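Reading a protein record of the kind used here takes little practice once its layout is understood. An example of such a record is reproduced below.
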Amino acid sequence: MTLKVKLSSVCLGVEGMTCASCVQSIEQRIGGLPGVVHIKVSLELKNASIIFDHSHHTPESLAEAVEDMGFDSILSDTTTASVVLTETQLVPIPALLTPEAQQEALTRLAQLQAVLEVQENKDQRGVSVTFIPSLISVVQLGEVVSSMAPLLEVPTSNSPTEETLVPAPATVSAPATSSQPQLVKMRIEGMVCLSCTTTIEGKIGKLKGVEKIKGYFVIA
């Protein structure tokens, strides 16, 4: 089945935001509306860039949705929606991926905000992905799939039949034998209030593999 959707983008002025929590609230509420594919809110520029399905929304309806949250949304006479181009590409699936890993790769691709449709293509051993090229590239899509690659098996010099596990390339390196939780401390710039801390904890704490997160906001 071929996906037929008409996407548009619009930039709305937004007044009344005071901190990063306001940005997060708008992105979550408006981004969760049916037909909204992507939203990026800027506190500094006081605007919201939205990519949406034209059959679900108009710039006016999106502005009203923002105003329903208690913010002022500015939609001038010169504000128009621009056409957003989509692209469909075949992303190869590594031969070493197990059926379970393949399904996980399909799930991860489908969860990406810039991905509109994912279909497995067994004849060409790949995944047909329809996406927004202005938000994500084919290379990044391939990295999502390749990140699911298992440990590669290569013969050792001692025995032709003996095999050694070699970790597949990864963006972030970690001890190959470690199965214990890892602790990492990060310095985060840009937080302006305790609400920012709560937002970060809620967002990062929901990520797969994250067991616990604690943020601290220190007033200098």
